[in-house]
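Example record

One chain of 323 residues, shown exactly as stored in the release files.
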Amino acid sequence: MPKDSRVTLSIILIIIILAVGWSVWKKPAGERGLWHLGAGTADKGGDGSDASLSASGGSNLNDTSDQGINADLGNVDAVLGGLDNDFSKSAPGSDEQSVAQGDADLAKVIANADLAISARITALTTLGERASMMKYASDSEKAALSAEANSEIASLNQLKAKIDAETDADTAASDAGTLSTDYKIYTLVVPKGYVMLSADRASGIVGLLTNIEAKLKARINASESAGNDAASLNGTLADLTAKLNDANSQAQAAEAAVAGLSPDNGGSSVADANSAALLSGREHIQAAIADLKAARDDAGSILAGLKEAKVPLNANSSATLTQ
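Predicted structure tokens for this chain:
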């Protein structure tokens, strides 16, 4: 092929690639393989942990079609995955720090302590960033959680500086031991934060499902108007509503259980009270998750029932929503 022809062909191929890329970029997020979740996005199948929630989840509030509701349910599934992930991180861990008291290797003691401190700072930094993204907590609650994380980070950095400056291995090991006695990062601060994050995410999912609930109610009304018996569908809708109400109450109770907790500073009675409060908060989150998954199943069941009733709406149709 002549050189000029090859150049011309290359230019044409570049133009085609750019045109295709632009056409994909212009599509809505959902059509590009992403679920739009309010101000954030989550990869399909991901945990949605970076997603910022809104009641609409980026969906068309008036789209009561099968396609629209299925897209809404896809958003719910994605964020439910994020809730499961947050809940798993709310399980208290161990702050026990293995220190080699009497170890003559000062460099080893310092290196181990620095590694333990760095891991805690990373966990706290992530927690602080997530706290600032909470949608349903009050400004004061978000500020308090962020401030707690930042305060612990500052304190850990001071401890690191002290350990790094030590010239005696026993003294450095004693300093490192305070990670177990004076800092409750894994046993309290991080679990408490993720209970609160879980409660906030659960409230967001309630909002998403409440929007779906309204769409399904409109579809059921349309089915009844067409002469179909909707008693079973209305029964399932009532269960969905009850599950959402309880999920919302459970999320609020979880947050209330842990919001005021602070490290025990070695006090056993405070430590016991903190442990009981964390357990209570996690139980409330567990109940909220069960409610939300049952409500999501109810929504799917209603949509399937509407299809069987043979009054589906296409993407260009709409039913009257009662707001």
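Notes: Residues 71 and 192 are 33 Å apart (CA to CA).
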